[in-house]
Amino acid sequence: MSTTQAPVDVDVLRGEIRKTYTEVAAEQDKDFIFPTGRGWAEDLGYPRPELARIPDPSVASFAGVANPFSLGVLDPGEDVLDIGCGAGMDTLVAAQMVGADGYVTGIDMTPDMAAKARRSVAEMGLANVTIVDGSAEELPFADAGFDVVISNGVIDLIPDKEAVFSEIARVLRPGGRIQLADVTIQRPVSEEGRRNIDLWTG
After folding, report:
1. Where are the alpha helices (DSSP H) in the chain?
2. At 170, phi and psi to the nearest 5?
3. Residue 25: closest CA among 119, 127, 135, 104
């Protein structure tokens, strides 16, 4: 269990994050402070065949920061966890890579995003995907249940990174791997900046 002291009110932060990503789920044509959508995914080098099969609503609400599959394709038959799956684009790419013998579980704390992901799973007729409501700091999964954990632009939003990585280590099987795409900083952030909710959510 982590003892990290968050520099912001975590409940307020979660509420603001949900608000921001609810807007991303609902308003695909809106300009956000971060890039979104199919054009952005293509710029990041996502595999075109897999991307083309994903329903437009999930791709339109894509708000990742990079391409976790640039670290390597997933193998058929692997069990994968997508932390902060959003509208499901990475989850659905992963599901195509692992095939019918593999399984992908997406988890997200924004109900509108998770609902959009579930609709796309149903539209694609995928039996090897489950979308779960929940948070990265308390993953509702058994120990050693996944071969791979992927995540895209999510861990940077969470103050208690120690808790997240502890949970990732817990749910990974021995020899499992992590494929993360995220934002990092090269300089220390001021105390004032660390307390600024807008900087956390944008």
Report:
1. 10-26, 38-43, 48-52, 56-60, 89-98, 111-124, 161-171, 191-194, 197-201
2. -65, -40
3. 119
Q: What is the pLDDT of residues 131-168, one digit of tens each?
A: 999 999 999 999 999 999 999 999 988 888 999 999 99
CA distance 34 to 183: 12
- The Cα 23–Cα 1 span in angstroms is 32
Residue 27 region by backbone torsions, left for phi larger than 0, else alpha for psi between -120 and 50, else beta: beta
CATH 3.40.50.150 fits 10-185, yes or no: yes
- Domain boundary assignment for the chain: 10-185
Identify residue 129 by its one-letter amino acid code. V
Between CA 138 and CA 13 the distance in angstroms is 16
Cα four-point dihedral sign 192, 163, 106, 182 = positive
Give tens-digit pLDDT for 10-68.
777 777 777 777 787 777 677 776 788 999 999 999 999 999 999 999 999 999 999 99
Q: Could you tell me the pTM of the whole model?
A: 0.85
- Is residue 160 helix, strand or coil? coil
